[in-house]
Amino acid sequence: MTDHAQAPNATEPNATDKVTHFGFETVPEADKARRVRSVFDAVAKRYDIMNDLMSGGVHRLWKTAMIDWLNPAPGSHLLDVAGGTGDIAFRFQDRAGPKSRVTVLDINAEMILVGRDRALDQGRFGLDWVVGDAEKLPLRDRSVDYVTIAFGIRNVTHIAEALKDMRRVLKPGGRFLCLEFSKVVVPGLDKIYEEYSFRLIPQIGRMVAGNADAYRYLVESIRRFPDQETFAGMLRDAGFEQVQVRNLTGGVAALHSGWRL
Ligand code: SAM
After folding, report:
1. Residue 187 C-alpha to ligand 1 middle, in angstroms?
2. Exposed (0-12), middle (13-18) or buried (19+): which is 203, by Cβ within 10 Å?
3. Ligand 1 contact via 84 beta carbon (within 6 Å)
4. 230 alpha carbon to ligand 1 midpoint, in Å?
5. How far is the CA of 188 from the centre of ligand 1 (A)?
6. In 3-state terms, what secondary structure has residue 105?
7. Candidates 32, 34, 40, 222: which one to mutate for ligand 1, based on the most atoms within 8 Å of Cβ?
8. What are the tens digits of pLDDT across the range 60-108?
9. Is the CB of 165 under 6 A from ligand 1?
C-alpha cells in the first residue's frame, strides 16, 4: 500500500498561500482536502478493523451514545456527513426504522465504496451514498431532519464553512450532532492517553493498515482540534441554538449538539 500521507508531490506553502494545518504540518489550504483524501484512500479497506483495534471497540459505544442522544423520530431523514463506511448511518436506520432515509456523504469514494458494500452485505436499503464535500453540500436548504458528523469535522479545511452549510440543509426544528475526539478532562488519563496515542497508534497503523503516517496524522489532527468549549462556540457562531456538550470516556471524545430553530 502506498504511503500517501507523505505524498511525494506534497507542496510546500509559498509566502502568499493561505495556510492551514495537516496534523502538525503547515500546508497550503488548497492542499489539505487532497491530503486528507489520500489518507483515507490509503486506509479505507482496513478502516473498520483499525477502529476496533485502536479503541478496543470503544468507538462502537460512542457511536451508539450518539444515536441514543439523537433519539431519531421514525421515518425521519438523516444526512451523515463524512459518513465513511456507514457506522452512524446503520445505527440510525436501525433506530429510525424502515421508512427512514439516510444520505451518507463523504469526500472519499474509497470509503463510500466500502460502506456501500457493507450495506449490501447486511441487506440494507434506503441509503443514498454520495461523494461530496462537507463545505459544499449538494442538498437543498432545509431538506433534512438531522445532520450528523462523526470523527469527520477535524479533517475539514474550513470548519466554520462546513458548520454553516450543515445548518443550511437542516429543516427548522432540525438537529445537528457531532462526535469528535476532544480534550481529556480526567487528571492522569491525559498522560496515559498521550503516550498511547503517539507511541502505539502509529505502530498499530503500520502493522495493520501498512501506513504509520496516516495514523500519525490522525493523532496529530486530534491534538490540533479545538477543546469542548471552543468548539461549542463555533457551533453558536454558525447559528446553532441550544448548544450542549457531553463528554465520553473522560473527554477522549465529546458529543456536541445544536438545533436549527
Ligand atoms: N464517520 C465515519 C466513522 O465515524 O467511522 C468515518 C470517520 S473517518 C475518521 C473521517 C471521514 O471524513 C473519512 O471518511 C474522510 O474521507 C471524510 N472527510 C474528510 N474530509 C471531508 C470533507 N471535507 N467532506 C466530507 N468528508 C470528509
Report:
1. 30
2. exposed
3. yes
4. 21
5. 30
6. strand
7. 40
8. 999 999 999 999 999 999 999 999 999 999 999 999 999 999 999 999 9
9. no
SS in 3 state form for 178-210? EEEECCCCCCCHHHHHHHHHHHHHHHHHHHHHC
Q: Which residues contact residue 172 at a Cβ distance below 8 angstroms, ignoring those fewer than 6 apart? A: 142, 260, 261
At 41, the pLDDT band (50, 70, 90 cuts) reads confident
118 Ramachandran zone, left/alpha/beta (phi>0; psi -120 to 50): alpha
**Domain boundaries defined on the chain:** 57-182+225-260
Is there an atom of ligand 1 within 6 Å of 255 CB? Answer: no
* Cα–Cα dist 129/106, whole Å: 8
Q: How confident is the model at residue 180 (pLDDT cuts 50, 70, 90)?
A: very high
Q: Is 219 in the pocket of ligand 1 (CB under 6 A)?
A: no
Q: Report pLDDT digits (tens) over 135-177.
A: 999 999 999 999 999 999 999 999 999 999 999 999 999 999 9
How far is the C-alpha of 107 from the C-alpha of 91, rounded, in Å? 21
Specify the length of the chain in residues. 261
Distance 98 CA to ligand 1 centre (A): 25
Q: Which CATH superfamily is domain 57-182+225-260 in?
A: Vaccinia Virus protein VP39 (3.40.50.150)
Q: Which atom of ligand 1 is nearest to the CA of 37?
A: 16
Q: Which atom of ligand 1 is nearest to the CA of 111?
A: 14
DSSP SS3 for 17: coil
Q: What is the dihedral of CA 115, 60, 41, 228, to 10 degrees?
A: 120
